[in-house]
Design brief:
heterodimer, A: alpha/beta, Beta Polymerase, domain 2, 5-stranded mixed β-sheet, two-stranded antiparallel sheet, elongated, B: alpha+beta, Cytochrome-c3 Hydrogenase, chain B, 3-stranded antiparallel β-sheet, about 15% strand
C-alpha cells in the first residue's frame, strides 16, 4: 500500500499529466484511495498501469457501492494491484444517480417492480427501468483490463450503471427480462411472489 | 440417410450451436454453456451464469454484521471457512480489532483443512469426469475425515459459522489435536496414493497433458489467480505476498507448473494439498496458549459463565444479540488466498449496525472468463476436462 504521503505524490504526478483528474484522496485504515473524475477514468487507469514507477498492472476487483444519501451517489471501485511491490491502490469514480427522463416529472422516484407484485391481477406493464430513466454512465475499461468484462456486467446488472464501450453489456446474474437494479439502496428487499393454489387466479 | 437428403450436408464442417446445461453432471454446478461446434471442435463458447443467484449480497445489507457470517458462508459452499475469514477479516479491519494469536493459528489450521477438503472435492469430481470413478470414493473418504474434524470442533460438518469477528467462537475440544495429528500423518500418504492411481494412467495423461493451455500473460490479463495461474508458472500466492493470520510464520512452498496445461493444474493442486498438510502440522505445533477470541466486549459476546454473575456482561450480551455492534463508517477491501484464487471481500460501513454493502470478489467468477481461452480450438471432450480443472463453484460464481 502506498502510505499517505505516497498517495499525495501519486496525485501530484497524475495532476501533471491529467490536470483535474484527481478530485480527492483518502487514506483510511491503511488503505489508499484516489477519487477520480469519472470522465477521465480510463486515462488515469491506463496511466497508473503504464507509467514507470507505478505499474499497477493487475485489476483485482471492480465493484460498485451505493452511498445513497450522499450527493454523487454511486461509487465504482477499481482495486488495482502492483504485484512486484505488493501494493494495492483503490480508484473510485463517483457517479450521479439516475435522472428521470421523458414524461416522468423530475423528483418522482422511478417505478419499482416490487410494487406491482401486490397489485393483484394486473400483469406487469411497467416499461423496463432503462426506458424511463437516464442511467449513469462511465467509460468501460475492458480494453485495458480484460478481466473487467464480467465484473462490469455485474455492476450494470445490479446498479444500472452503463459502461460505454463494453463489448457485451447485458445482465449477467439476473434474468435478461428483469426490471430494476437490485443492489441499489432504494430497491427494497422484496421477493418474488410465489404462485400457490389460493392466489393462482391473481396471476391469470 | 442418403434418401433423406442428409448427404448434401457436410456434417464435419457445419457449425452447430448446442446448449450444455444448466443441469449437467459435468458442469460442476448449475452452469450453462452455449457452444458452437464444428464437428467435435469447439469454435466459440459462452458461459451463461446466474441460475443459482440468490441475492446474498443484498441480503447481507439487511442483517447485523454477526448475522452476515452464515450468509457469506453459503456463497462458495465448498470453501466456507474462506468466505468467513474474508468477511470477518474485513470487519475486523473496519473496527480496528486485533485478534489474539491463538485465534490466528486456529483460523490458519481450519483454513488449510478447508483447502485440502476443497481440493479433494475437486480431484474426486474432476477425475470422475475423466472416467476415473474410484478416485471419487478415495477422495471423499479423506474429505469425510476432514468433515469429522470440523464437526468435532465446531458442531457442524459444513457451514460451521466458526469464525467470529474477533476470533473463533470456541476453543478446540479435548481429543481434537490427537485426531488432527492422525489425519496430518495420514494425508501425505493418501496424496501419494492418488498420484499412483492417476500419474501413470494413460487415459488420464492423454486427456490432461497439453490440453487447455493458456499463457501466463493472458491469464494475468483475465485476472485469473490461484492454482490456475500458478500452473502457468507464476508464483503468485496471497499467503506469501500479504501478511495475514499466521502465514508469515509458516514454512511452506508455492508449487508452480511449467506448461500451464490441465496436467500442471492437477499437479499444482496435489502439491498444494501436501503443503497445506505441512502448514496444519506447523500451526498445531506452534499453537499458542491464550484466549481464542478478543476481549473487546463491544464487539465480542461475553463468556456464557459471566452472564449469571455480571450485570455488565448481561447488558453487553443483550446489546450484541439484539442490535449488534455498530461499525464506524469506512470501507475496506480484504483479500485472502482461497483454494481458487484471490477471494476479496469489500465491506462498506455507514456507521449503523448493518453493512451498507458487502461485495465478494469471487475467484470462480473471475476465473470463469478464462474458460473460453482454454477450450476454443479444442475438442468438446477436452472442454469438459478443462472445466473440471478450472474448478468453478457455481454458488460462488452466482452468489
Amino acid at each position: 500500500m502506498p502510505d499517505a504521503p505516497g498517495l499525495e505524490l501519486i496525485r501530484g504526478e497524475i495532476e501533471q499529466h491529467h490536470p483535474g483528474a484527481v478530485l480527492d484522496t483518502s487514506f483510511d485504515r491503511g488503505q489508499a484511495a484516489l477519487v477520480v473524475d469519472p470522465d477521465q477514468i480510463v486515462a488515469v487507469l491506463s496511466w497508473l498501469r503504464e507509467a514507470p514507477g507505478q505499474e499497477y498492472g493487475f485489476l483485482s476487483s471492480l465493484h460498485a457501492a451505493d452511498y445513497l444519501p450522499a450527493a454523487p451517489r454511486f461509487g465504482v471501485h477499481y482495486e488495482l494491484l502492483n504485484r512486484d511491490r505488493v501494493e494495492r491502490l483503490r480508484i473510485k469514480a463517483m457517479l450521479e444517480g439516475p435522472r428521470p427522463a421523458g414524461p416522468v416529472a423530475a423528483g418522482d422516484p422511478p417505478p419499482l417492480p416490487v410494487a406491482k407484485a401486490s397489485s393483484g391481477g394486473v400483469p406487469p406493464t411497467t416499461p423496463p427501468a432503462g426506458d424511463t430513466e437516464q442511467l449513469p454512465e462511465i467509460d468501460s475499461c475492458v480494453e485495458l483490463f480484460p478481466t473487467a468484462e464480467f465484473q462490469e456486467r455485474e455492476v450494470f446488472d445490479f446498479f444500472g450503471i452503463r459502461f460505454r464501450g463494453h463489448p457485451d453489456l447485458r445482465r449477467i446474474l439476473m434474468p435478461d427480462d428483469y426490471v430494476g437494479w437490485p443492489q441499489r439502496r432504494d430497491f427494497p428487499v422484496g421477493g418474488e411472489p410465489v404462485r400457490f393454489t389460493f392466489n393462482e387466479r391473481n396471476y391469470g | 440417410m442418403a434418401e433423406a437428403g442428409l448427404d448434401n450436408r457436410d456434417l464435419d464442417s457445419e457449425v452447430m450451436t448446442i446448449n450444455i446445461g444448466p443441469h449437467h453432471p459435468a458442469t460442476h454446478g448449475v452452469l450453462r454453456l452455449v457452444v458452437d461446434l464444428e464437428g467435435e471442435m469447439v469454435r466459440e463458447l459462452k458461459p451463461v451464469i446466474g441460475y443459482v443467484h440468490t441475492g446474498i449480497e443484498k441480503s447481507c445489507e439487511a442483517n447485523a454484521y454477526w448475522k452476515v457470517i452464515p450468509f457469506v458462508e453459503r456463497m462458495d459452499y465448498v470453501s466456507y471457512f474462506f468466505q468467513m475469514e474474508a468477511f470477518c477479516g474485513a470487519v475486523e479491519r473496519l473496527v480496528g480489532l486485533e485478534i489474539p494469536p491463538r485465534a490466528k493459528y486456529l483460523r490458519t489450521i481450519f483454513l488449510e483443512l478447508n483447502r485440502i477438503h476443497s481440493h479433494l472435492v475437486w480431484l474426486g469430481t474432476t477425475a470422475l469426469d475423466l472416467g476415473a470413478i474410484s478416485m471419487l470414493w478415495y477422495c471423499f473418504r479423506e474429505r469425510d475425515k476432514i468433515l469429522d474434524l470440523f464437526e468435532m470442533a465446531t458442531g457442524q460438518r459444513m457451514h460451521t459459522r466458526y469464525f467470529q469477528v474477533g476470533g473463533v467462537i470456541e476453543d478446540i475440544p479435548l481429543g481434537f489435536e490427537a485426531k488432527l495429528r492422525e489425519f496430518v500423518a495420514d494425508m501425505p500418504v493418501r496424496v501419494g496414493q492418488y498420484e499412483d492411481l492417476l500419474d501413470r494412467n494413460e487415459v488420464f495423461l492423454s486427456r490432461t497433458k497439453n490440453v487447455g493451455i493458456v499463457s501466463r500473460e493472458r491469464l494475468l490479463e483475465l485476472g485469473v489467480t490461484g492454482p490456475l495461474l500458478r500452473a502457468a508458472g507464476e508464483p503468485w500466492d496471497l499467503r506469501k505476498a500479504f501478511d495475514y493470520l499466521a502465514y508469515p510464520e509458516m514454512d511452506f512452498k508455492v508449487p508452480v507448473g511449467t506448461v500451464g496445461d490441465n496436467y500442471d493444474r492437477y499437479r499444482v493442486r496435489l502439491a498444494e494439498m501436501v503443503e497445506s498438510t505441512r502448514i496444519v502440522e506447523q500451526a498445531l505445533d506452534a499453537l499458542p496458549e491464550g484466549p481464542h477470541i478478543a476481549d473487546d466486549r463491544k464487539y465480542v459476546l461475553p463468556p456464557r459463565s459471566e452472564l449469571s454473575t455480571s450485570m455488565e456482561s448481561l447488558i453487553h450480551h443483550f446489546k450484541l444479540v439484539t442490535e449488534g455492534y455498530r461499525v464506524p463508517p469506512g470501507e475496506v477491501y480484504y483479500s485472502i488466498e482461497s483454494p481458487r484464487g484471490e477471494l476479496g471481500c469489500f465491506v462498506l460501513a455507514d456507521g449503523s449496525a448493518k453493512p451498507a454493502r458487502v461485495h465478494f470478489r469471487d475467484p470462480s467468477f473471475v476465473n470463469l472468463q478464462s474458460f473460453r481461452d482454454m477450450s476454443v480450438g479444442g475438442y468438446v471432450a477436452d472442454m469438459i476436462a478443462s472445466l473440471g480443472m478450472l474448478d468453478p463453484i457455481l454458488g460462488g460464481v452466482d452468489r
